[in-house]
Write a structure and sequence with these properties.
Number of helices: 3
Shape: globular
Order of helices and strands: EEEEHEEEEEEEEEHH
Radius of gyration: 16 Å
InterPro entries: RmlC-like, RmlC-like_jellyroll, RmlC_Cupin_sf
EC number: 5.1.3.13
GO molecular function: dTDP-4-dehydrorhamnose 3,5-epimerase activity
Number of strands: 13
Function: Catalyzes the epimerization of the C3' and C5'positions of dTDP-6-deoxy-D-xylo-4-hexulose, forming dTDP-6-deoxy-L-lyxo-4-hexulose.
Protein name: dTDP-4-dehydrorhamnose 3,5-epimerase
Oligomer: single chain
Length: 186
């Protein structure tokens, strides 16, 4: 497994496994504590695993958490997704930086997203399963959502949006969220 820094988002990493493929299919390690530790992350910090299943065109995000924030490892375990990270850490050298990835079940690459970054994705295939490994239990009172179509972010979503949650549909602009001081990670 190889870890690569994401230049547009300070502290973000892409973990790419080395699959072993044969006539049966493939096998690969999707999490390796030693590799995670080698880039300065604590592999024991992750306390919750979650999974979402989306159909083609579904858009989830842009989401982040207030309070202590939330770091996460994100992997598309089946299908393909267009994944987006926006750095909202005011003290970060990549503040307001954006990074885009195509994550897929074929590669099983995992993206590490530091606390204080917004995250969202769109399903590119008829079925896309996305796995999350999160560093603290979810508290809905700390959820923050930013408009996926905010012109300031100009995210090049690859497909028309077929479905999204009401919360995501009604999300405020980035400027509105940045004006609210209580959202900021501690």
């Amino acid at each position: 497994m190889k870890a690569t820094e994401v230049p547009a988002i300070a502290g973000a990493y892409l973990f790419e496994p080395t699959p072993y493929a044969d006539e049966r299919g493939f096998f690969c390690r999707t999490f390796d504590a030693d590799v995670v530790r080698s880039v300065g992350l604590d592999p024991d910090a992750f306390v919750q695993d979650s999974l979402s299943r989306s159909v083609r065109g579904v858009l989830r995000g842009l989401h982040l958490r207030s309070g202590a924030g939330e770091a996460k490892l994100v992997r598309c375990s089946y299908g393909r997704i267009f994944d987006v990270v926006v750095d909202l850490r005011t003290d970060s050298p990549t503040y307001l930086g954006r990074a885009f990835f195509e994550l897929s079940g074929d590669t099983q690459a995992t993206l590490y997203i530091p606390a204080g970054c917004a995250h969202g994705f769109q399903a590119l295939t008829e079925t896309a399963d996305t796995s999350y490994r999160i560093d603290r239990p979810h508290d809905p009172a700390e959820d923050v959502t930013i408009a996926f179509d905010d012109p300031e972010l100009a995210i090049p979503w690859p497909l028309p949006v077929t479905s999204m949650s009401q919360r995501d549909r009604k999300a405020p602009s980035l400027a509105e969220v940045l004006q609210q001081r209580e959202w900021r990670p501690a």
